[in-house]
Structure formats: C-alpha cells, structure tokens
Fold this sequence. Notes:
Chain A is an alpha+beta fold and 251 residues long. Chain A is built from 8 helices and 8 strands; from the N terminus they run αββββαβαααβααββα.
Amino acid sequence: MNNPLGKARLFLKGRLRHALSDHEAALLDSVVDEGVRVPDGHVVQARSVRATHSTLLLDGFIARVIDDAGTRNIVGLQVPGDFVDLHAFALKRLDHDVVTMGPALLGSVSHERLAQIVRDEPHLTRVLWFSTLLDAAIHREWILKLEQLKAEERLGHIMCELWHRLNFVGLADAHGFNMPLLQTHLANACGTTAVHINRVIKAVRQRGLLEINRGRVTMPDRPALEAFSRFKPDYLYGEGSLFMSEDLREP
Amino acid sequence: MNNPLGKARLFLKGRLRHALSDHEAALLDSVVDEGVRVPDGHVVQARSVRATHSTLLLDGFIARVIDDAGTRNIVGLQVPGDFVDLHAFALKRLDHDVVTMGPALLGSVSHERLAQIVRDEPHLTRVLWFSTLLDAAIHREWILKLEQLKAEERLGHIMCELWHRLNFVGLADAHGFNMPLLQTHLANACGTTAVHINRVIKAVRQRGLLEINRGRVTMPDRPALEAFSRFKPDYLYGEGSLFMSEDLREP
DNA sequence: CTCCAATTTCAACATTTGTTAATTCAATAG
DNA sequence: CTATTGAATTAACAAATGTTGAAATTGGAG
C-alpha cells in the first residue's frame, strides 16, 4: 500500500506515486524526520546559504521568493507533498529564498541521507530527479503565462494550476480550495501590482469565473475558467496526462 | 586534463567542469556519439513524444518553444555545451519543443547509457542532475525578469545572460557575441511583440548600451548594460559565483 | 544586376498596466 | 465596544505595450 500513513505519503501523489516500490516508499518515509510546525513567513532555506537538509512540505503553502531592489517577487509556489528544496541537494546554494505562506508543517531530510540514496537506489534517485524537473516544467509554464497572457488570464491560470496540484493530494474540492495568499502575493506571482490585481479580481468575479476572499478560492465554473485562462494541465504530469512518465515505474 | 579535446568538453565548462574526475569526463565523452549537423528549425525533441535519447549541443543555438494558439513562445535558450534535453531522460515526454535556431551540431546519448550512469556512477549522476537544475535556476530568473522588468531591461537582461553563458564556453568576446536570433525571436523570448522589440532595440542603441544587427550583438559598455538591466550573474552558478556548488567536487 | 521574399523600421491609435493617493472594510487587542 | 492596524477597494491620471498597416531595407536566387 506504499505506506499510506507515512510522513512522505503525499510525495508525488497524483503523479507517479505508484512508481515507488514498497521498499522505496518505506525508505523515503524513514529518512524524513518528524514534522516541525513553523509560522507564517518562516524562511525554510535562504538564498546563497549552504544547505545541509532538504524539506518536504507536509502541510501549508510555500513560495519561492526573490527580493530585488525592494520588490518581492514570487517565482514559484509549493503545496503539500512537494519536496520544496530538493533542488538544494544538487545545487547546495539556492538562488532564491524558500518561505512559508501561512503556518506550515515541514519534514526534513539530511543531504547525507540523500547522498546514500543516490549511491544505493538508482531508481528512487530517478524519481527524485523527476520531481525536481516537474518544478522546472512548472517554471516553464509560468514563463509562458507571463509572456503571452494578460493579467486576468494569468490570475485564472495560476488558480487553475493550484487547484489541480492541490487536487492531486486531496486538498481541493469541487468548488475550489483554501489558500492563505493575499492579494499582494497574487500580484507578486502574476508580475503585476496590488492595485491592478484588485481590478483583475473584481473583473473575473464579475465574469462569474472566480471568487477570492480571505483564504478561500471559489470556482463556480472551473472548465470555463480553464478555457478563459488557456489552462491545460498536461505540464503538471498528472496521472494519465499526455506527458506522464509511466516509464519510471520500472525499477 | 579532463579530456580537453572530447565531444563533451564544453559540458559545464566555466561552471564546475573540474567537478568531473578524468574517469567521469572520459566516460561522458564515450557515451556521446559523433555529432550530427542539422539545419535551422530542426526539431531535436518534440513535445509529448517519447524520448529515447538526450542531446548535447556541440555548436549553435537551440530554443525551448511552446506553440500555443498560433503564437510561438520561447521559454528557454541553450548554447553550446548545454545538455539540452537531459530533462527528457527523467521526464520521458517533454512539455515543449526543442528546436535549433540556425544550423547546429548535435551529440546524442541514449537513455540506456544514461540509466547505466545513474546505476553505476552516483557522483556523475549528481553532476548531471545539477546541470538540469541549472536550467531551472535560469527559468526562475526569466520569471523574475518577466515579472519585474520592462521590455528594454528584459532585452538587456537576456543579452547579458547569453554573453555570460557563451563566455563560459569561450564563445563571447570583449565587445559582444554572434547570435542567429531574429527580432521576432527576441520578441518571443521577451514576451512582447516584434513591433515593440524593434522600438526597444532602437532605444537601447540610442542609450549606447546595445547594438543588434544581423547575427551580431555588440555591447559597447557591458557593465553599464548589466546595471541598466539589473543583471547579476550569480544565478548562472559560474566558477567563483556566490552560488557555485564547490561541494560537488567530492566524488 | 534585378527581382523577390524576409526582415526591419516607422507611424497612428487602442488597450493594458503602473502610480499615487485616498477611502472603506475586516480582524484583533485592549 | 472602540481603537488600531493591515488589507482591500476605488478613482484619476501617466506610462508602457499592443495593433494595424504601410514603407524601407537587406540578402539571396536567378
């Protein structure tokens, strides 16, 4: 059953969780320590600081943040089940900060343990590698979104993405999801200003596509929102998607 | 000497080429086949098609392209020495097309060989993993650039990035570099239109910061251009940079 | 050389987004 | 309950970018 109650049970859930053997799932679970609760704004891994551990997000939201000349930019978002700074295992120093958005529960794995896995578990290594490339695929979709979409569509797109990612791990419902991000943060993630994101939120609400208020996102007609935002979930490599790497199953 | 004349000699040059032992450099070199010359617009790896090989770019330029609703968007650029679709080894199917910009020379490695490396060479595996995360770091910087910079600065930023990446592999000179991208392509990579990129090229030329014409990029005052574009090269993980992972040296 | 096609350049106008500043609303401490 | 603070909302105006259509330039093919 792939250790369904383990600390790492959400890792790659909805993607290719079944690519892990029972042994691998148990091993992964055993190297994650007990979760630690941290408050809003906690810096999980700071830019340019030598990393010795990597963090599995067990509960809550995390943003990848780059502060530059007084402006705070969000270059990525992570949801429960994401190995948020596995990148730091190979890079050792990150180019950005990893920061909690709202309180969160964090599991930690030492890089010594990860190095053992790379040495002894080639298949699990490929799965871990895969999970970091999933982040890269999401980065590319954000680039695409920023290059070709207007602010209204960008907002819709990011909300659709979050719904799907949360749905993989069982945290979305038919009408939306809960999310601690403020309008300022949405502006930072959409490459626009707080004033403009407010205009845009109002506009999509009036279109009947999306409602956002105090921690709750409501999607009255998600298919319509996805069409409006030109959102297609393939790049998330979910189970059964066009791109999913079923080949990783074979150890 | 890390096999200085080998096919893979440009791989990670300027970054942590010295992280590879002679054995690893020779091994990497041995798994790359003879280079194949391909023309402009050649699709190295198509979106959603099962990949069986990964490609090392030996000469020329390559773009990561996502076509969507008639528009062609460039979500990444690759230069000689880049393992352009190593991502496809772990993902198996890519979310984007990998396309040559101008004629190019391509080396190829089968995924069977890569799987052997992952099984038998944990340190080399980490270095290959690192190289894909370098792409992710560049993706994040593009997101940052698109979120916070105006078109003039975006253009300057992307040109500074290319200069540094080409400089790592010895293909930049003091005053600029050669590049086959047309104004249309620069527009596609900056998230703007061909008409506007033309305005912008004119503007930065008049500022005395950058000249672009028929395949040649000239930077009369690169430090000034970098300041104007808010470009800082750390995220490229070059030798001696803030973020470079010197720790990967230890096998 | 001449012609042709692709690329670059330009102008006029429309739309989107940024900026500044003020106002309203919501949550919480006391 | 009230005061206070942070967040959300709105308005008016400025700046950046998109759109359309045309003209100029360039590099090759013949």
